[in-house]
């Protein structure tokens, strides 16, 4: 990263500044700007004992910073890269899924409005699963009826003793449906 | 040399020297050896694991300095250090205290000579200016 960015990252760290005239100043870096003007706090110079110091950038020969600053900068860059990647990928993934799945799980009140949109039979079935307004016996079943081969008009009966295996089948079915739908589109 | 966009209007770009061990000579005559981590359009440099090497006669001494941010206008030149040749130096390394002592003695000797020179020139009608920078 650029030298001035490194300097910005060093804010709060103790640094040593040597000026063109050979004077050295020690202190905790408070601020810096694009002209390399800096302000230091505490320490001051062992000679002068200054609580605050402002140094104009063009008088600086060099600055010495602790090694920890470089490590901190590397960590920050890694973190930023990870955050950027994860946020981007996650967002795109969510957009890719059909919105209905998310809508179906969010709650009864929301799906009430959504049902009218007619997103497709199996999605509506999913809405009905979670909607408290619908009667228990009218609720679609997780267990797929053998009689209903046509998915768009299925009424899946809710089997109260549905095991994990059934849920898995259900989810696999959902995924298959999703693939079909995206292929159709 | 390289096809990357030039960062400043000199013939050579510093991008080739990144992450290499360099010797940097400053205007005050100091020689800093370190690994170049970054630079910008002003040739401000960031050197890591740097040490200040003081040469006196056939001896030299190192002082550990850590991370340097050098302001570009203070740099005279920089050169890549060949790590193979570096080990086979004709100079002898001495401890820091010794080299500082040698440096002090050298400075005193130089000051004496300069004073004499100044005096002689002054007698001839010349005025000598003592420059406090550009001591390289």
TrEMBL record, chain A:
InterPro entries for this protein: Lsm4, LSm4/Sm_D1/D3, LSM_dom_sf, Sm, Sm_dom_euk/arc
Q: Report the SUPFAM superfamilies cross-referenced here.
A: Sm-like ribonucleoproteins
Write the record's keywords in alphabetical order, separated by commas. Answer: mRNA processing, mRNA splicing, Nucleus, Ribonucleoprotein, RNA-binding, Spliceosome
Q: What is its main location?
A: nucleus
Start-end of Gly residues biased regions: 85-121
List the GO terms this entry assigns under cellular component, sorted alphabetically. Answer: spliceosomal complex; spliceosomal snRNP complex
- One example of a Gene Ontology biological process annotation: mRNA splicing, via spliceosome
Q: Which family does it belong to?
A: Belongs to the snRNP Sm proteins family.
* Protein's UniProt name: LSM complex subunit LSM4
Organism expressing this protein natively? Coemansia aciculifera
From TrEMBL, chain B:
Indicate what this protein is called per its UniProt record. Answer: Uncharacterized protein
| Source organism per UniProt | Coemansia aciculifera
